[in-house]
Amino acid sequence: MTAEAAGCSHRASRRLSAALPHDGAMTPDATRDAGLARLADFVPRAGRAYAAERNTDRGPQDRSNVSTLSPWVRHRLVTEREVVEAVLQRHSLDAAGKFVQEVYWRTYWKGWLELRPSVWARYAASVAPTFDALSVADRATYNAAITGTTGIEGFDDWARELVELGYLHNHARMWFASIWIFTLRLPWQLGADFFLRHLLDGDPASNTLSWRWVAGLQTVGKTYLATADNIARYTDGRFRPRGLATVAHAVDDDAAVPPAGPAPVPEPLPRATRVALLLHEDDLHAESLPTLPPEVTVVGVALMRAISWARSP
Ligand SMILES: Cc1cc2nc3c(=O)[nH]c(=O)nc-3n(C[C@H](O)[C@H](O)[C@H](O)COP(=O)(O)OP(=O)(O)OC[C@H]3O[C@@H](n4cnc5c(N)ncnc54)[C@H](O)[C@@H]3O)c2cc1C
């Protein structure tokens, strides 16, 4: 991979450095080498310690209980297989089972959406009309939510953390989405869009389907309700928001979940002698391409920095 292809934009790189505070042993950067270094650093903590500690959001100054590998994994600078293999070389599956399960959630969500692309298409098409349809009052609530000025303890901190750092702990993502939908009564699509625009790991499958899960659309009828006690417990008492919704009725604003369609079939590799590889933000891991036929020579590698259809409109 060329140096340019191996790295994202300088802006993304700077944000990644800021987003992922560490113990000084590494220099976080949006490169494969930095992702592999972070993986090596985290592997010793991926066993029982992860299972016991991972639910606590200690705040942006201490992310040592989770891997913070998601930006590299999402853009395939480091693959799920590499992550799981490295962890299982150090720990038994029994000890590292929880971590491996979490990595598999990503794989599962991607496969689920790949077989049901209409769920993404409907979401993507709904964002702009949903925003346009907000009432004046709801638009004010929306603006307060994305600027961290609702007055809801924790929620406002996470909104600012997301915008400034591009990362949120998994539990904070769940609390934030729940408060957005059930306390502020804002459309889930606009919350998913807010996340997708700011997360360094923003991912069509993991993000959209997690928001749908909180809203009760993914596991139909099952919602996620954030409570002040749970937030206080798993933020080490940093936040205890008041006035949260006490019920979470499932959202019912989307078509029924479609049955799984056929898996897309990969296009055959070109047999021409001269080819160029076009890398995009969904897959920066050219190393894992199937071996090219010997008569094929790669004469160029280009990096496409953004693909409009894979981002929120
Ligand atoms: C509302 C909401 C939105 C989310 N949006 C995204 C998103 O856009 N992109 C994204 O990668 N993840 C998303 N997640 C899942 C999860 O929050 C992040 O993957 C995780 O917090 C990343 O931090 P980490 O690398 O420290 O995770 P770790 O706990 O260290 O987990 C290791 C890896 O496993 C994967 N993983 C862990 N938990 C999950 C999960 N619940 N679902 C899918 N994959 C998981 C990630 O690739 C992660 O890097 C979302 C979750 C919620 C509730």
Write down the CATH topology of the largest domain.
Answer: Serine Threonine Protein Phosphatase 5, Tetratricopeptide repeat
Range of helix content: 40-55%
Helices and strands: which structural class?
A: mainly alpha
| Rg, nearest Å | 20 Å
Q: How many domain regions?
A: 3
Which sequence of strands runs across the widest sheet?
A: 1-2
The amount of beta strand, in percent, is under 5%
Are there runs of 5+ residues with pLDDT below 50, and where?
1-27, 307-311
Mean pLDDT: 87
Q: Which hetero ligands occur in this complex?
A: flavin-adenine dinucleotide
The gross shape turns out to be: globular
* CATH class annotation of the largest domain: Mainly Alpha
What's the tally of helices?
A: 14
Q: Give the termini distance in whole angstroms.
A: 30 Å
CATH architecture of the largest domain: Alpha Horseshoe
Could you spell the SSE succession in H and E letters?
A: HHHHHHHHHHHHHHEE
Q: What is the number of beta strands? A: 2
Q: What characterizes the major β-sheet?
A: 2 strands, parallel
